[in-house]
Specification:
The structure is a single chain. The protein is mainly α and about 190 residues long. It has one domain: Cobalamin adenosyltransferase-like (Hypothetical Protein Ta1238, Chain: A, Up-down Bundle). It contains 6 helices and 2 strands; from the N terminus they run E-E-H-H-H-H-H-H. A two-stranded antiparallel sheet has the order 1-2. Helix 1 runs antiparallel to helix 4. The longest helix has 24 residues. The termini are far apart.
């Protein structure tokens, strides 16, 4: 990476631009800056989730994800640079398979609810989807490899699965299962 920040209030962004890792400046409204911001927000949301009681294996996984998201953000900040490795996507695939294997099959759509940690995982999932949309929009003009797109797609799926895992972990005594959506169809078909 080109420069490390030594001071935070540089005032160089007062004109509505921000500096990339390669020294170029872009408008803060540029799609690249939006994608970087969404990935940063996702990482911050994971930090909030990590402040909750979590099973040790989930905590370890999320800390690794935070580091990979920092790599992804770094890659977005230096067009043409590769920081996020294909192994990171494979690791998410493996985690998805591992955690999904023990979950019961879904009966219906579930609400983003249950324990506090599960609800926070759902918030992170929705932020991951927004970050994915921003990176997809950026990729439409080129300059984004497939790994960042795949990583964000897998991560949002993993966060959904982890929300289900966290409800079952029931670390705050308020969960235990998924919170199913009570659709009109279910109400109509109920005995």
């Amino acid at each position: 990476m080109a420069n490390r920040l030594t001071q935070i209030a540089t005032r160089t962004g007062d004109d509505g631009t921000t500096g990339l890792g390669d020294g170029t400046r872009l408008a803060k409204s540029h799609p690249r800056v939006a994608a970087m911001g969404d990935v940063d927000e996702l990482n911050s949301q994971l930090g909030v989730l990590l402040a909750e009681p979590l099973p040790d294996d989930v905590r370890s996984l999320l800390v690794t994800v935070q580091h990979e998201l920092f790599n992804l953000g770094g890659e977005l900040s230096i067009p043409g640079f590769e920081l996020l490795k294909p192994d990171a996507v494979r690791a998410l695939d493996a985690a998805l398979a591992r955690y999904n294997a023990d979950l019961p099959r879904l009966k219906e759509f579930i609400l983003p609810a249950g324990t506090r940690s599960a609800a926070l995982a759902h918030v992170a999932r929705s932020v991951a989807r927004r970050a994915e949309r921003a990176v997809v929009a950026l990729a439409e003009d080129g300059g984004v490899r497939s790994e960042p797109l795949q990583y964000l797609n897998r991560l949002s799926d993993l966060l959904f699965v982890l929300a289900r895992v966290l409800n079952r972990a029931n670390l705050d005594g308020l969960g235990g299962d998924d919170v199913y959506w009570n659709s009109e169809r279910l109400a109509r078909d109920a005995p």
